[in-house]
Amino acid sequence: MKRAGVIGGGAWGTALAQVCVRAGLETVLWAREPEVVAGINESHENPLFLPGVALEPALRATHDFADLAGCDLVLAVAPAQFLRPTLEAFAPHARDGLPIVLCAKGIEQRSLKLMTQVLAETAPHAAPAVLSGPSFAGEVARGLPTAVTLACPDEALGRRLAQTIATPTFRPYAAFDMVGAEAGGAIKNVLAIACGISEGRGLGRSAHASLITRGFAEMTRLGVALGARAETLRGLCGLGDLVLTCSSAQSRNMSVGLALGGGQTLQEALAGKLSVAEGVASAPAVRELAARLGVDAPISEAVAAILAGEIDVDTAIQGLLARPLKDEME
């Protein structure tokens, strides 16, 4: 594999394009925004989503999906709620068997489908894989040490992809459970909003640790009900990503929760943000999936209710604390 395409010119897409260039791949990044394409090609910077981060001079950006037609692998990094139309537009340029690595973390709100299901419907001739794990775009773009999960049902292809994009500071660990990798990445965004709310309300570190732990139990229950393996969720794409996203205001989802916990409305919390907080769109989908599958997901349900304006923050907190006591392993 010598040539990589990256679909999506946001912070995470730009960071992964940096990884590909550093791994020795000729890399083309497709972006919707003209200023992103111009900034990368002319000044080696993404002025909208990663300002101040010097990009590799070899990285090239484009508006035209046709420029990705000859790639040996493609990383699809468009936000989850926009992935379907983006893949539909790219599909005519994708050869049969092209590895498409899904890097968005979310559940399609309208259909309640995971990104692999969206890919199967829009580019069924592609070879799917999922990349997920604890990773902040700015840190990855700067070359700071990061480890992620790269899940692919084709064992040989998965290992080849991991070896292809690995660098001295970016370590993809091969796995074969795509549902587990997707479930962890999507659900942790919702739980990060909960942790942000707790932090914004000043509930303390004990409450924060409890939310992460009980949230992980919730993630595991729902992931397994979707078809994931519990051990996958104990790895980088589940527990690892949950710990990172719930522990830093760098997380877009936690920052939304911080604003809500501090008394802002959802509209105020999202105002002026260019990057997408995937958990806001995924929360109602997670709540509905849990209900359909008969899975107890009280934290995700509370977050979805707050975002929908059905209850206020304090009522949600009181509701969680008033739940009947139960055995921890239930």
From TrEMBL:
GO MF annotation list: glycerol-3-phosphate dehydrogenase (NAD+) activity; glycerol-3-phosphate dehydrogenase (NADP+) activity; NAD binding
Binding site for NAD(+): G8, G9, G10, A11, W12, G13, F82, A137, R252
Entry's Gene Ontology BP terms: carbohydrate metabolic process; glycerol-3-phosphate biosynthetic process; glycerol-3-phosphate catabolic process; glycerophospholipid metabolic process; phospholipid biosynthetic process
Single GO cellular component term: cytosol
Segments forming domain Glycerol-3-phosphate dehydrogenase NAD-dependent C-terminal: 177-318
Enzyme Commission no: 1.1.1.94
Keyword ATP-binding listed: no
Pathway entry: Membrane lipid metabolism; glycerophospholipid metabolism
Catalytic site: K188
Binding site for sn-glycerol 3-phosphate: K105, G133, S135, K188, D241, S251, R252, N253
Enzyme superclass (EC): oxidoreductase
Compartments, as annotated in UniProt: Cytoplasm
Keyword Nucleus in record: no
Record-linked HAMAP family: NAD_Glyc3P_dehydrog
Assigned protein family: Belongs to the NAD-dependent glycerol-3-phosphate dehydrogenase family.
Summary of the function given for this chain in its UniProt record: Catalyzes the reduction of the glycolytic intermediate dihydroxyacetone phosphate (DHAP) to sn-glycerol 3-phosphate (G3P), the key precursor for phospholipid synthesis.
Protein name, per record: Glycerol-3-phosphate dehydrogenase [NAD(P)+]
Organism in which the protein naturally occurs: Phenylobacterium zucineum (strain HLK1)
Gene that encodes it: gpsA
